[in-house]
Amino acid sequence: MNISDKLRALLHMTESMCVLTGAGISAESGVETFRGSNGLWSKLKPEELANFDAFMRNPELVWEWYNYRKTLIHDVKPNPGHYALARMQELVSDFTLVTQNIDNLHIRAGSKNVLELHGNIERSYCIDCGKFAADVEVSSENKVPHCPTCNGIIRPDIVWFGEMLPEGVFEAAAKAANRCELFLTVGTSAVVYPAASLPLIARKNGAYVVEINMERTEISHNVHETLLGKAGEILPQLVKVKEE
Ligand code: OAD
C-alpha cells in the first residue's frame, strides 16, 4: 500500500486527528458487517429487531437476539486495526475516536474516551427510570431483565432505527471533526447519518480526509484519498509512519 507524500507529511506533523470507525474495522475480528451480500441486514429485518416498537411487541425475541450477538462478540478479540488506533491516541495529543460500533472492541484494545454514537452492547438501561446497568443476565428463566430499582423493563443500550443518538455524543464528535487537521474514516459504508456527515464537516473545516476501506463508498468522491485494503493492515502502517 502506497502512503502519499501528503499523508506521510501530515502524519509526521499533526497533533490533531479524528477517526470515525464502522463495522469494517471489526470484520477482521470476525464480527459481521451490516451491509454487503453477507451482511447482517441481508439476513435479518432491522424493522423486526432494531427498533423500539419491535422491542415492546416482543422484548423476549429482541433480548434473545442481542444476547446471542453479545455472546459472539465476547468470544472475539480486537485486531491490529483496533490496537493501531489505541497506539495512535498515545502519539497524537488531540486525538478523538468516534465509532458507530457497539462491540466494545476499541475499549478492549485500550482506546480511551471513545465516542460511541450507536451505544454499546455491554450496557443496558431501564426504559422507565433510565438507570444504567452493566452485565445484565438473560437466561431461559429470565428472558427479559427488569430494573432492580423500579422493576421497569431493561433494554440494551443500542441506538435503534428512528431513535436519537445519545445526548452530547454527536456534538462532541462534530467538534472534534471541526477542529482536526487529519480525519480518517475507516471501515464504514458511510450511508448512516449523522455519522456519515463527520468526514464532510471535517473537510469543510479544512481537514485532510482519508478513507480506509475494502471498497469505494458513498463518500469516496468527497475525501482527499481512499486507501483500499484492510483496516487491520493499513492502520498499523500509518502508526509506523507516525512513529518514524
Ligand atoms: P456497513 O456494514 O454498512 O459497512 C462496512 C464497511 O466496511 C463496508 O464498506 C465494507 O466494504 C468495509 N469493510 C469490510 N471489511 C473491512 C476491512 N477488513 N477493512 C476495512 N473496511 C472493511 O457498516 P457501518 O458503516 O458501520 O447502526 O454501518 C453503519 C450503521 O448501520 C451501523 O452502526 C448500524 C447499521 O445499521 C445501528 O445499528 C444504529
State the fourth-level CATH superfamily of the largest domain. Answer: TPP-binding domain
- Return the average pLDDT rounded to an integer: 94
Shape: elongated
Tally of separate domains: 2
- Return the structural class: alpha/beta
- Based on DSSP secondary structure assignment, what is the total number of beta strands? 9
Please state roughly what percent of the residues sit in beta strands, choosing from under 5%, 5-15%, 15-25%, 25-35%, 35-45% or over 45%: 15-25%
Task: Please provide a written account of the structure.
- With 244 residues, the protein is α/β, with parallel strands linked by helices.
- The chain folds into two domains: 5-31 and 78-118 and 165-243, TPP-binding domain (Rossmann fold, 3-Layer(aba) Sandwich); 39-75 and 124-158, SIR2/SIRT2 'Small Domain' (2-Layer Sandwich).
- The chain is 37% helix and 18% strand.
- The protein contains eleven helices and nine strands.
- It has helices at 5-13, 24-27, 40-43, 46-49, 52-57, 59-74, 80-91, 105-109, 169-179, 198-204, 231-243; strands spanning 16-21, 94-99, 115-116, 119-126, 132-134, 154-158, 182-186, 208-213, 225-228.
- The strands form two sheets. A six-stranded parallel β-sheet has the order 3-2-1-7-8-9, with helices on both faces. A three-stranded antiparallel β-sheet has the order 5-4-6, covered by helices on one side.
- The longest helix has 16 residues, at 59-74.
- The radius of gyration is 19 Å and the shape is elongated.
- The mean pLDDT is 94.
- The structure holds 2'-O-acetyl adenosine-5-diphosphoribose (OAD).
- 2'-O-acetyl adenosine-5-diphosphoribose binds at residues 22-24, 27-28, 33-35, 39, 50, 100, 118, 159, 187-189, 192, 213-215, 217, 230-231.
- The site of 2'-O-acetyl adenosine-5-diphosphoribose has 23 residues, from helix 2.
